[in-house]
Design a protein that fits this description.
Radius of gyration: 19 Å
Order of helices and strands: HHHHHHHHH
Helix content: 55-70%
Number of helices: 9
Length: 186
């Protein structure tokens, strides 16, 4: 049996490894307890339900992925930051197979709202960084934006297309970046 772990952080670390090896569907209280070398009750001490454990695992994986793309800075160009975001999240998806496409299905109905809220917090943070990057990029032609297409609208468009590319496991975001360049650059 594995070395016994008893802290919340250790349980989450073991759970992340399980997700990396087998996908998030492998997470259940018994499997985690077995991998941690503890009784099932020890896992329940930190996570009252499977939903709570899965949401916590999703949270730490998103934190890891977002930290991995923290080099998206306003001083970089907008398109460069879109590319960094795409490839950073893609790399995270390679470390945690099927994470993006199945984690919302892994949480029972009662936990979906909390799981969705956690994911949306990360998405909003990323979109805010992209908006700042767009605003700071000197190459952007400001006349592109209007009441019908605000900068915030454009970020939503770009972000939803990035997510679509990632969910469909595309190898690149080249088409999207070419569309962006043609639309907003001088």
């Amino acid at each position: 049996m594995n070395k016994a772990v008893t802290s919340k952080e250790d349980i989450l670390s073991v759970s992340k490894e399980m997700v990396a090896q087998c996908g998030i569907q492998a997470i259940n209280m018994r499997n985690v307890a077995k991998e941690c070398g503890v009784a099932v009750g020890s896992v329940y001490n930190y996570f009252p339900s499977k939903n709570d454990l899965i949401i916590a695992v999703i949270d730490v994986i998103w934190k890891e992925i977002i930290q991995g793309i923290s080099d998206c800075t306003p001083s970089s160009g907008f398109v460069e930051n879109v590319e960094k975001l795409f490839y950073g999240v893609k790399n995270g998806g390679e470390k945690y197979p099927f994470f993006f496409s199945v984690h919302s299905m892994s949480v029972a109905k009662s936990g979906k709202d909390k799981g969705r809220e956690t994911m949306n917090q990360y998405f909003e943070s990323v979109k805010a960084d992209l908006l700042l990057s767009l605003q700071k990029d000197q190459r952007v032609k400001q006349e592109f934006f209007s009441e019908k297409c605000t900068q915030a609208d454009f970020i939503e468009f770009v972000f939803s297309n990035l997510i679509s590319l990632l969910i469909h496991n595309q190898d690149s975001c080249d088409l999207l970046t070419e569309v962006i360049k043609g639309a907003i650059y001088k």
